[in-house]
């Protein structure tokens, strides 16, 4: 948990550094959140084993315009990922991360933007759940790696008065299980709405 707090502080420091730039280049600070649809992906995952699990993400970002059509956007988000298994107990993995993406946004037209960039994620909590006899049984797990690296790709649109919407895909590169050679990764979609101050 200390590592998570340290990297949250690091992410907020990046935001402050960006805000210290000249007002001509600063695009603004904002908040963003929405729904997430995550699953396990990789060569060792059968499509019949798991289904998408609905979660959420919420956090903040800042934008630093390098040119009129290219911006750098660091952010810090709390994100709930995982997967679900359609077995007789409806078992599921609930993985909570602090995501720190650094996105490059390109604006081919006014409002419309395409973005991509690396993301490092720090595990805040992991548990496995199942439904037994009308109740939910859950237990914390230490089987998940504490750090996850990935790539974020997406498309967004800036609406009037500071509002924005976007759709993105997180493509994890780091196998998520400790002490395992299984190629299993965090993969999923995010639909977000945000506001830039």
From TrEMBL:
<protein>
    <submittedName>
        <fullName>PorT family protein</fullName>
    </submittedName>
</protein>
<dbReference type="InterPro" id="IPR027385">
    <property type="entry name" value="Beta-barrel_OMP"/>
</dbReference>
<feature type="domain" description="Outer membrane protein beta-barrel">
    <location>
        <begin position="9"/>
        <end position="197"/>
    </location>
</feature>
<feature type="signal peptide">
    <location>
        <begin position="1"/>
        <end position="20"/>
    </location>
</feature>
<keyword id="KW-0732">Signal</keyword>
<dbReference type="Pfam" id="PF13505">
    <property type="entry name" value="OMP_b-brl"/>
</dbReference>
């Amino acid at each position: 948990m200390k590592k998570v707090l340290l990297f949250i502080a690091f992410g907020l420091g990046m935001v402050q550094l960006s805000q210290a730039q000249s007002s001509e280049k600063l695009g603004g600070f904002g908040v963003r959140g929405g729904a997430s649809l995550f699953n396990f992906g990789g060569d060792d995952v059968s499509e019949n084993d798991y289904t998408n699990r609905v979660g959420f993400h919420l956090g903040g970002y800042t934008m630093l315009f390098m040119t009129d059509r290219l911006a750098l956007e660091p952010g810090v988000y709390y994100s709930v990922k995982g997967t679900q298994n359609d077995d007789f107990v409806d078992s599921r993995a609930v993985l909570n991360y602090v995501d720190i993406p650094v996105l490059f946004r390109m604006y081919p037209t006014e409002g419309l933007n395409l973005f991509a960039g690396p993301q490092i994620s720090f595990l805040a909590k992991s548990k496995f759940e199942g439904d037994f006899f009308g109740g939910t049984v859950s237990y914390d797990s230490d089987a998940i790696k504490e750090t996850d690296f990935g790539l974020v790709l997406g498309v967004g649109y800036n609406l009037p008065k500071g509002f924005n919407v976007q759709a993105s895909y997180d493509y994890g590169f780091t196998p998520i299980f400790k002490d395992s050679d299984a190629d299993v990764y965090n993969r999923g979609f995010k639909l977000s709405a945000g506001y830039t101050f």
